[in-house]
Amino acid sequence: MGDVFEGVTWSEVARAGLKVVLIVVLALIFARVGGRVAARSIRSIGARSPLRVASPRGEQRAETLAGVVVSLIRIFVWTVAALLILGELGLNLGPFLAGASIVGVALGFGTQSLVKDFVSGFFILVEDQYGVGDVVTVTDQTGTVEEVNLRVTRLRAADGTVWFVPNGEIRKVGNAAKEWTKAVVDVLVSNKANLEAAMAAIAEEAAAMGDDPAWAQAILEPPEVLGVETMGADGATVRVSTKTVPAQRTPFAREMRARITGRLQRDGVEAAEVSRPTGGS
Whole-model pTM above 0.70? Predict the structure, then answer.
């Protein structure tokens, strides 16, 4: 009665069964506790960092990273648990591990780019290189970030085109919405116009807009007339620069252009126009 088959006794079966149950229970505990500890640690680090302020974007980034780390911990714990269970069941893991190694090598060659995307995406999130809502330039494409995950970054260009950029292909990123930005307005004043009077009018209009309560939340530093930026056959280009919050750069620059244009027209400045500098708002 004690023998079941091939010399295996019921006591050995019971012992192996208890060990399997113990392994499963310990795996559940380690996966749950380890995941919670890792998630709390990531959220805590993000909250203590002086460079990170509380915002939906910061919370979204922390949740994404926490989810990734928790998934990795659970995969590791259950992989180890599965191997231990197979060993307790008396299976020879040698051929299995050898076969798994061959398959792993084959998959490694086939998924190098995918692994590269995931690693790059992880560091993009950790370093907060950009987030949803930022205006960025990656791989010669400029657009607003609509989604960023471990594998791909989704951009929407100004013309509405959606670009999907694998994170592994991103080598250089230009973020126009990082903490603060400059609203730059170039004013082309004709050679026939009175440059001194035009600059005085531009400075007055810029100062008036800087004092406008409607734009108080957008302006980080008062508008500054930098002076004549370039000279050309059409006239002199006068540049006005204002430090603003990223989300308000474009509307602020548009309003500044409109006000300066109206002021110069009212003052009768001849053949003056307000233009957008290359790469500006």
Answer: no
